[in-house]
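quick one, 140 residues, struct below
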Amino acid sequence: DQADRSLGYRLLASVLRSRIFAWIMSAMGMNGSRVVGEALAGHSRDHQYSEEIVEAQVRWASEIIGTGGFDVVIANHTHKGGLQPVGDGLFANSGSFGLGGSWLQISKDRLSVISLSGEGHTVEQEWIFKGQPSSTSDAL
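---
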């Protein structure tokens, strides 16, 4: 969420990360805090993120990769899953498990965006790291 610089999001994030909110959630117990968490997640699912936020995330990832210290930046927050080359690296967004069921699967030789489909799951996009056996996927 570092790419979302909107005032509304910054205010919400500061409240949700505060000690007071943590204390309230703790005082509400497991069931009460679950209800609040699900309500917040529902609000997040219903919110349509603009392409501006996705583009801001890609710029943010590009800055991090451009420092030379990182090859891959993994984020979410926009609920838009995908793998995107950025400079000499890769920007990976896990998507949203709550919205259609997508997640990022990480192994020693690849990153995969997986989504639920019917009774199983589908590899939507895959990135194989350099030096690994090649396939039809891109290589980093």
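The chain has a mean pLDDT of 77.
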